[in-house]
Amino acid sequence: MSPIAFSGSPLDRASYARADPAWLAGQRSAGLFLPFWQNRPFVAGQRAGFLPGHSEWENCLCVFLGLDGTQPLFAVDLPGDTEPVLAGGGFQEMRSAAFVLPARDTAIAGQAKALLDWHKRHGFCPNCGHVTQFTDAGYRRLCPQCGAEHFPRTDPVVIMLPIFKSKDGFGDQCLVGRNKRFPPLLFSAFAGFVEPGESMEEAVRRELAEEVGLKVGDVTYHATQPWPFPSSLMLGCYAQAFTCDFRIDGHEIEAARWLSKDEVRARLANSIEDDMKLPVAIAIAHHLIKDWAKR
């Protein structure tokens, strides 16, 4: 299976040492910093733009990412309404950056974006409302009022490709759908947040029943993807459909279509030009569809 975007970071996150202020100060003095501005990473050429520290960044939100070998790496969030000018590159939206950055840089930048975004949105204690304190190099916030500890949030999302197996094994099909919020022409796998008290398999069955009225049996895990928009873990699955009959809900899903393996292969090869596009390679939905068609 080919690498999935935002996964495969090579960094040692050094959880064994990062809570030590003296150790962290030493790492910061030797560190390289990936600047962010308005949730956009700094990109230099086709690499994540890590830079030596600047004195004016001392009071900016800064998180420790990990050790790349012996090199400490950090991310720093730059304030202001005007894009900072830094030599050698510019700030680029995370999704578009993922198309040009190497896989390792995409994974590191995705980690940085998710951490910085969490800190910016969780400055107050949900237990008592008091301002929380940054600690543990960015992997924890502590409330000095009530003592509550808060950790970076990751939301589990099931993303699933329903499969209908023919009796002869040669007419297998997958169901793809079009969400009303999708860009024009895009059809993809189905997805939804896991609700409290649900297993992954139960969430898959519920979402497919809600969105397309489809009854499924076996649910099998395929792969996961960290998705920093803002911070989800996509749980990629296949679901075995009992029937080809479906009914779109009309609220989230506006269309759905069964595709054969031959048609999927042709579409991924850009051999068909019509009113349908399949997901791009940075999305786990692309891998679910492609890997099924290769079987």
3D structure, described in words:
By secondary structure, the chain is α+β, with helices and mostly antiparallel strands. 22% of the residues lie in helices and 31% in strands. The protein has six helices and 16 strands. It has helices at residues 21-29, 94-98, 103-121, 200-212, 261-268, 284-294, and strands at 32-37, 40-44, 47-48, 51-52, 61-68, 71-78, 90-91, 133-135, 140-142, 149-150, 155-164, 173-179, 190-193, 216-227, 232-241, 253-260. The strands form three sheets. Strands 1, 2, 3, 4, 5, 6 and 7 form a seven-stranded mixed β-sheet that branches. It is globular, with a radius of gyration of 22 Å. The relative contact order is 0.14. The model has no long low-confidence stretch (mean pLDDT 96).
Brief rundown of the structure:
The protein has 295 residues and is of the alpha+beta class. 22% of the residues lie in helices and 31% in strands.
Throw out a few tags for this protein.
single chain; seven-stranded mixed β-sheet; globular; 295 residues; six-stranded mixed β-sheet; 6 helices; alpha+beta
| Fraction of helical residues | 10-25%
Q: How many strand segments?
A: 16
The radius of gyration over CA amounts to 22 Å
Number of helices: 6
Tell me the distance between the termini.
11 Å
Structural class estimated from helices and strands: alpha+beta
Overall, the morphology is: globular
* SSE topology string: HEEEEEEEHHEEEEEEHEEEHH
- Major beta-sheet overview: 7 strands, mixed
Strand residue content: 25-35%
Report the mean per-residue pLDDT as an integer.
96
Low-confidence stretches: none
